[in-house]
Amino acid sequence: MRNCYGYCQGNCIHRTSIGKGIKMKEISQLVIPEDVRYTRDHEWARVEGEIVRMGVTDYAQEQLGDIVFVEVPQMGRRYAKGEECGALESVKAVAEVYMPLGGQIAGINSTLEGSPGLVNSSPYTDGWIAEVKPSEISDMEGLMTHNEYIEMLKGSRQ
Amino acid sequence: METPERTVLFDSHKALGARMVEFGGWEMPIEYPSGVIKEHLGVRSGAGIFDVSHMGRFIIRGDSALRFVQHVLSNNAEALDLAPTAAQYTLIPDETGAAIDDAFLYRFVEGEYLLVVNAANRKKDWDHFQLHAGTFAGLELLDVTYDMAMLALQGPGSRRIIEEVADDVAGLPEPSRNAVGIVSIAGVRVMIARTGYTGEPLGFEMFVDGKDAPRLWDLFLEKGAVPSGLAARDTLRLESSLPLYGHEFGIDRQGREIPCFAFPIAKLAVSFSPLKGDFVGRGALGKQFAAYSKIIARDYSLISSLPRMFMCVALTGKGIARAGAEVLMGGKPVGYVSSGTMIPYREFEDKGLLSRQTGEHKLRALCLAYLDSDIVEGDKLAVEVRGNLVEAVVVEYHLRSDAPPYAHPIVQDHDILELPLFCPRKFCREGGRLADPGPEVPVKPSDGPSLLLRKAVENTRWRQHECINLIPSEMTPSPMVRLLSITDPAFRYAEHKGAKAFYETEIFYYQGTDFIAEVEWRLEEEFRKYLGCAEAETRVISGQMANMTVYGAMVDYINRADRRSEPRRLRAVMNNHIGRGGHLSAQPMGALRDFVARDPRTERPAVTNFPVLPENPYKIDIPATLDLIDSCRPELIILGKSMFLHREPVAEIRKHLIETGLDSVLMYDAAHVLGLTGPYFQQPFAEGADLVTGSTHKTFFGTQRGLIASRYEQSEERYELWEAIRRRTFPGAVSNHHLGTMVGLLMAAYEMNFFKDQYQPKVIANAKAFARALKECGFDVAGDPATGFTETHQVLLNVGYARGAEVAKRLEANNIICNYQATPLDEGFTSASGIRMGVSEMTRFGMSEKDFQSLADLMKAIVIDGANPLDKVKSLREQFRELHFCFTGDEYAELMESLRKL
């Protein structure tokens, strides 16, 4: 997940997005659960039986600010690992969502249409984005653990 | 990259946990921890406080300051007159007609201008000014950006906060857009203006010494203002379709300069007044304006001067239009999005004047788009969002700011409310309780006639038998007047005109008119007798028409020497301010509009309002008015009001006109007080009025008509004005002049001339008793206590800011009928805090001083105690069903019976 917002002429505030703003929360204040795996683009993935549930991290939602629109992946479509599959829009910025692992979309969180703010308030629970039927469940092993993700966040802050 | 600058409030923002970003060379809060949505809604529902100290601030002063600002800015700086209009939106054009910047110009003190420019453009603007400053001797240009801080307090709650923190409210700006003042807040000198960048109808921008800003900031937070960052500032301005330099001004996506008139707001910010003279960019802007004028009439012959314009676009499909997104129509590219995002808005419940914000909010995707100029409102577009096309539509606006205290979102897909046939009354009155009657059962078209009959009976019974009628412009006429009004002349014509060839004999254009001709002649006679004047014109059918007829006649009269040139309008008029009791019929926004010239200096209608007393805005300040008459030299002076508590200074103004030799026409609009004219109130002609106009159905006893009367004798030159009034009446204003009500009015005039010495003092005594009783009940009663608050039939209450409509509705639900009214402190009728009442109708139904005291108690129960004493109101009315001050008795019984049978 990264900022994809471009056009402006200088007299504007739109260039600020992920990583560019001065931090509001310390890393220790972020919720980073241990039961999910992470991508470098700040998505998370959790194995739940046959499927993998995915969303974006507390860090991502916090950086974006109030989320006002969520474009969820297409139901039933197959995506490759790392492929762009949706977008989160805050008032000021747009962020793309990438597939943490390859697979077919088996479910989408349709409540986000009316309540996009769920991604802000509960990014790992009610604010989930999609359920994926993975092509290779072993892809999960390639994702970062809780500790690795924290290390990465610390690194990017230096 | 240079280190960004910090405002004096930097530490305050950090302490609040703001997310800081670099913007225009400054490190500014983009949002606070509560987030942009809460901040946006906080402004729309309450009040938000913004640090806008990063904006550039220049002082321009010295002998040639005015000439300089007229040269480098697009607006007419000479129109800034300290009060009430001392701030204006303006552009800094270049020679090609593009904007170097957009800005706000303030005039807080004589001889000095303060210009606020965009932070990112400050250096560029400064250099541009330096380039032009050379030829202006004695010009002083100062950059005070670092000395002065700037705060914006915006939102419906901002006014309450400002009034709470101000050491003395006297210095606050008047309740109109762009008014300014200098006030002390917590001992700090604050230059304060009713301006802002949020679309809020209520909002203030403040300039203070930098060192004092943190203290004020904390004070506003303490009072409940929501700290709001640049993100909310951007969504608020976008929702209200205000331009942002770099998006809507400057250069476009292709790198071409954007013409100023591409943003329609330019028409308010560019002046072509000859008095302004030549200025940078005038020629190019003139071309754009010519193109703009044609484009809005959908004539595209000059479109090459203005190929694209900014329009409001609402997304109807799913997605958000972002700046830079391509816009298509019918598959063809037609422009791009200049600013766009998803914006939260409060939902409103109920409708019309009673609509109010709920705690709920929704989101909507809005944008401003730079589109081909031949695109019009309603055109269906598609916006490209991440490779997909999202449906969108061109709309007129996204938000309305014209119903203070709230800004109202205009939502694309809202339900159009259809009024049912004979809209049900909002409240059920049964059992004294208020309850929503629920939806009315739909009616078949064939039910229409019987339904109308039934409802007309119900309505008349309700207003005549069950309601206390206190609207000061209304009167129930006597049974004789009513019956006469529907006799045969009600269906006839009687056009007539004096013919000089026949020694001014009135020539009638139709036959069968002898009766109505006699009625009209006798009616004029009765009014001449009543008012003590030379002439009366009774064919005008309303007070408003009477005034328009006089204005038209004035224009006719002042152009009498030259019938070939374009007639000129009245050069200068003096009147009562609409917010201080003046009526629409004497305002440039009302009946006066087409008859008064624009002042070439200000480009506004050449109307000057009478100054009023600081302690009583319903009383004219006579010495100040006489001074103003000397400087304005008005051709027409219009006295008279719709909030009419005190005598108008007719004699004083007449004396002054005689002493100074000024021959202004002195007109007295007696609409409200026509029935009080006489020794108990005031006698305009005896005191020196030239003309009296009025309506015949407020304090007077008549049917609903108008009147013009004059003191001019046939022997004097000004009689030509009277002749013009006759011509502007017919054939100018009326062809059919509603003959039925004229018959009724003659009877009403007989009644008035016969009963006035009993009726008039009783009305005034009742009004004073009512006002006193209301005061004792705890109401805030307007007017001079020394004269018992009122010298007329009217009583005015202040029931609290923006509470007028709601209080009037609650009184109506309890069968007390009055009307809410904007007071001098209100922005407009939607934020009215006044309740206006008149005692004349109920006096005629026999109510006396002690009855008005009982009524005051009932009003206290309703308004102050929140009770619903509907039954008590009905029983009070029950005692006063018979109309007085009219002819009754056996001698008329037989004739009345035949009238009824006709």
Overview of the molecule:
The complex is a heterodimer of chains A (158) and B (902). Chain A is of the alpha+beta class. Chain A has a single domain, classed as OB fold (Dihydrolipoamide Acetyltransferase, E2P). Chain A is built from four helices and nine strands, in the order E-E-E-H-E-E-E-E-E-H-H-E-H. In chain A, the strands form two sheets. Chain A has a six-stranded antiparallel β-sheet with strand order 1-2-3-9-8-5. Chain A has a three-stranded antiparallel β-sheet with strand order 4-6-7. The two termini of chain A are 20 Å apart. The N terminus of chain A is likely disordered. Chain B is an alpha+beta fold and 902 residues long. Among the domains of chain B are: 133 residues, Probable tRNA modification gtpase trme, domain 1 (Gyrase A, domain 2, 2-Layer Sandwich); 260 residues, 3-Layer(aba) Sandwich (Aspartate Aminotransferase, domain 2); 124 residues, Alpha-Beta Complex (Aspartate Aminotransferase, domain 1), CATH 3.90.1150. A seven-stranded mixed β-sheet of chain B has the order 25-35-34-33-32-26-29, sandwiched between helices. In chain B, helix 12 packs parallel to helix 18. Chain B is globular. About 2% of the residues of chain B have low confidence. The chains are: A alpha+beta (158), B alpha+beta (902).
